[in-house]
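Key result, reporting period 2: structure in, sequence out.
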């Protein structure tokens, strides 16, 4: 292997691993979003009230992202799903609360609902990634 083709030290390997993990996390999140929207639209089309469709869609997307994050993002080989489900829900709920809180705090000062949603979502993604990585799927 040519010089420089391998990481020079453990810190570089760790950084590459973290970046790879973050990319997988974002991919899983995007998939969760598609599941959420698709389930909502399907259920409303089938006659469900929108509020009920949203509740079901959020639950379906959350279970899907929990499974994908456990198996794909954080690569838990000997993963014990029963041990991670409740902590996953708690971290996801905390991230959702952060999202809402940041949105409410920024909506008026920024004067832009879209910008407030983008900032709130970015911050809540950082919170959820850190929480899932450290508290739910940590080694």
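The corresponding designed sequence is given below.
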């Amino acid at each position: 292997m040519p010089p420089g083709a391998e990481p020079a030290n453990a810190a570089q390997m760790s950084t590459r691993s973290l970046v790879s993990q973050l990319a997988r996390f974002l991919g899983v999140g995007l998939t969760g979003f598609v599941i959420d929207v698709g389930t909502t639209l399907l259920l409303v089309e089938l006659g469900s009230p929108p509020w009920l469709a949203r509740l079901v869609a959020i639950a379906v997307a959350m279970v899907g992202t929990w499974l994908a994050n456990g198996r794909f993002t954080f690569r838990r080989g000997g993963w014990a799903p029963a041990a991670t489900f409740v902590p996953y829900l708690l971290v996801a709920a905390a991230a959702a609360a952060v999202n809402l809180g940041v949105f409410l705090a920024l909506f008026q000062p920024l004067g832009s609902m879209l910008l407030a949603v983008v900032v709130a979502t970015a911050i809540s993604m950082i919170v959820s990634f850190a929480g899932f990585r450290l508290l739910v799927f940590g080694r």
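The chain has a mean pLDDT of 89. Residues 30-137 form one domain. This case is discussed further under Risks and Mitigation.
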